[in-house]
Fold:
Amino acid sequence: MGEPIYVETRVRCSAERLWWLTQDPVLHPRWDLRFSSIEPEAADPAGRRQFTYALDLPAPRLALLRLHGTGVSVGERRDAAGHGTSALRFRPADALSPLGSGSGYWRYVPVEGGTRFLTGYDYTPGWGRLGPLLDPWLVRPAVGWATAWSFDRLRLWADEGVDPGTARNRALGSVALRGAAVGTAARLLRAGPGPVRRGAAAVLLAVAAFAPTGRLVPSARRCLRRPPGMRAARPPASAATLPEPVPPSTPGSRP
Structure:
């Protein structure tokens, strides 16, 4: 496996509210790009909960491909201040999934003015023999970016009250504007030589590449992508007690 994925953000809300936004199986897919739906089962006496999950690509309303799998998770609220952890194991069910089986954790750390929310997880590559070749160059960077972008969308929801759907639409609009700038620059360059055209094209390309993301538009760049210390990168003890997820009875079926 490659280097584990790590993402951290700081949210200006209580750990209790953040726990609710992240642990509720209805709310979780609203902000997390990695899931379109999560359907939990009843928890066992130890608090462990089996669940099925699905990811619709490219989007739930325009699904051309549905990936799904199973998982098991457990959450632990450690004290009245709000410290907590959540650990999970997951097992994709589809051969087309770029991720194989894996495990990860969330950690909630109350700090002055809010909560540190961080995750670390790792997985075996999917896609058979091709997976280990593509994972470090394509899949792992994409999954890490999706996690960080999702964390910032969650932060905007908790901090600013920006609905996750609104945040997604603003992000798509930002991408469209940058794409329009690149397209206009290409048309200027195709129109023929000239210092004015070249200068205008250079400005448009610079805007597309370097213009800052709006304050209320989610951005993966706002998240910390490497653990600041050994403790942050260490899975909680509860992760070691999780059993392997039960595989789906019919791979490829809708969970």
The mean pLDDT is 90. Residues 34 and 143 are 8 Å apart (CA to CA).
